[in-house]
Design brief:
Layout (H helix, E strand, L loop, with lengths): L1 H28 L31 E3 L10 E4 L2 E5 L4 E6 L2 E7 L11 H4 L2 E6 L5 E5 L3 E5 L6 E6 L3 E2 L2 E2 L3 E6 L5 E6 L9 H7 L11 E7 L5 E6 L4 E6 L5 E6 L4 E6 L8 E5 L4 E8 L5 E8 L7 H6 L2 H10 L2 H7 L3 E7 L5 E8 L7 E7 L2 E6 L5 E5 L4
Antiparallel strand pairs: 1-26, 2-3, 3-4, 4-5, 6-7, 7-8, 8-9, 10-11, 12-13, 13-14, 14-15, 16-17, 17-18, 18-19, 20-21, 21-22, 22-23, 24-25, 25-26
Length: about 400
């Protein structure tokens, strides 16, 4: 028995060494595409009270399933819906019928390599006279006629702004008079197709010679672009307040929302609106109560294990992961959990809708309220979801 035990230990250690040594050598020799920095996050908020886990999002219904892919952002003109999809199209949905009205990029589309030429419409808004404003991740800001599909470029990603070009145009919000458009450029280093690198790297680009364009302002009359905020970590969704005195900017990597004042005594100043969110925020939109809808496709569990928080201060693990695995493979390891939170006008939690494991609603990117319904966009799913707010 003692002899057998020794043989087993020697055999086990030999096998372990034969696997560990080559693996260690590979991880040392392989290049890592990212240079991750440690991120200091607070302990995630407890999922209690207004954040208590539930399955309310599973009451949603899927619309136009497998007829469109990746409807990131949604707007309406009357009862007609508009969205942008992963294959570069701007789509109109009227009386249940889907119609492609415009395309900013050109084919082929369908693969990661195609995205820069295909284009990727992300944020979409309705301006005065029912014109559409679209933020395309690769091409820039555009105005689109919802009837004819005619497009007009407002700000190109080829335009040099303070010595730097835009790299990842993400979301936008428009004043009621259409004079000002506030928009985000999420990174000066990574494009949209590498958004996971941007999240995992965790840098504010302060180590780069160039700096990160975070929040920008475009004046539709003077045609001028101004940089309002820099140095945020993955600035994402943006939303003007109902009084249009400040703009809220979602800082995805840091799970928080910053506020920038665009009018009044605080004009030009900035502060924290909500810190330590229960997940990574994507888009933000107004709610009928005067507050804000926040969409999150990744949750920071508490109680429970949060993979995002575990990796935050361990850049060496991130390096090893991305030396060995592709972004798509890593994405598949991230637990699906969709969460939509409604905030009050002051930033406190009003209520939350959950879908553990993303059974009905997966990869939620936006919650758009219209006529008593909440329409849920998704950056990866082949459908739009709709939930009746009176039934949840």
């Amino acid at each position: 028995s003692t002899y057998s035990s020794k043989v087993f230990r020697v055999t086990f250690l030999t096998l372990a060494a034969s696997l560990a040594v080559p693996l260690l050598g590979v991880t040392v020799l392989l290049d890592c595409p990212i240079d991750p920095q440690p991120i200091s996050l607070k302990e995630p908020p407890l999922l209690t009270g207004a954040l208590e886990p539930n399955i309310k999002l599973r009451k949603a219904e899927r619309l136009w399933e497998n007829q469109l892919y990746g409807p990131e952002s949604i707007v309406n003109i009357g009862d007609v819906l508009f969205t942008g999809t992963a294959d570069g199209k701007i789509i109109k949905i009227e009386d249940g019928e889907i119609q492609t009205i415009s395309r900013i990029g050109h084919g082929p589309c369908g693969t990661r390599e195609d995205e820069p030429t295909c284009g990727r419409p992300l944020g979409i808004r309705v301006g005065p006279n029912n014109t559409l404003y679209v933020a395309d991740a690769y091409y820039g800001l555009y105005e689109v006629d919802p009837d004819t599909g005619e497009t007009k470029m407002l700000v190109s990603t080829k335009t040099v702004i303070e010595g730097q070009k835009l790299s990842f145009v993400n979301d936008l919000t428009v004043t009621q008079d259409g004079r000002k458009i506030y928009f985000t450029d999420s990174s000066s280093k990574w494009q949209r197709r590498d958004y996971l690198f941007l999240i995992m790297e965790g840098t504010d680009d302060g180590r780069q010679k160039c700096f990160l364009f975070s929040l920008l302002e475009y004046d539709t009359v003077t045609k001028e672009v101004k940089v309002l905020m820099v140095g945020l970590r993955f600035p994402n969704g943006v939303q003007l307040s109902p009084a249009e005195d400040f703009v809220l900017v979602q800082e995805t990597t840091m799970a928080r929302i910053r506020r920038y004042y665009v009018s009044g005594l605080m004009k030009g100043g900035a502060d924290m609106f909500v810190e330590n969110l229960p997940g990574l925020p994507d888009n933000i939109r107004l709610s009928s109560s005067g507050g804000y809808w926040i969409a999150m496709s990744a949750v920071r569990h508490n109680p429970g294990f949060s993979l995002l928080d575990f990796l935050a201060e361990k850049p060496w693990i991130k390096k090893m992961i991305f030396k060995l695995l592709s972004q798509e493979t890593v994405t598949n390891f991230v637990p699906k959990y969709s969460l939509v939170v409604e905030l009050t006008e002051t930033g406190s939690y009003r209520r939350s809708f959950h879908d553990p494991n993303g059974v009905m609603v997966a990869y939620v990117s936006e919650a758009h309220e219209h006529n008593g319904y909440l329409y849920l966009g998704s950056f990866r799913s082949p459908y739009i979801c709709r939930i009746n707010l009176q039934h949840v």
